[in-house]
Write the structure tokens for this entry.
Amino acid sequence: MSKQYEFRFGGAGGQGLMLMGDIFAEAAGTKAGKEIVLTRSYGPEARGGACRSELIVSNHPINYPAVRNPHFVVAMSQQACDKYHGDMDKDGTLLVDPRFVRKIPAGVKNFYSIPMTKIAEETTGSTLASNVVAIGATAALSGVIDIDHVKQAVLEHFKASLRAANEKAFDAGVKAATEVRQ
């Protein structure tokens, strides 16, 4: 990575978007030793309102601490997709969950539709791990942060009793991303 890379994770409150930002920040900053800036924005509602987490990753000091043209956008709701894709880099990538995002905005060249909630349900028996599936898919599709660093950050984040399920969810996300990219 020669320049800085910008991520935006958007969805509805309660979908684990803040956790996604935290895990990628941990993987990039602590594990990979890169410069990072992590910011968060919540809608007026605690659950169900639009929210986002944004991360800048760079090999050099970051001079402006706000995402301006994200290279990678994850949209876990239609509202987030509509609201947060507009300033994407022209060659940026959009990742959506088709359960919640049915309309891809015109003009988005690079997008992937991965049923992250369905995969979480099938893999772990719960939809709660859909954000961890998204983390795995994002790590595999973006290629910015070493997948092993991201996986390590995921495993360290959860208490021991939840690690096995979240590891399965992460691995399923990586696998799904690899399959859609072929």
Remarks:
- The longest helix spans residues 160-181.
- Strands lie at 5-12, 35-42, 50-58, 72-75, 93-96, 110-113.
- The chain has one domain: 5-176.
- The CA atoms of residues 134 and 173 lie 6 Å apart.
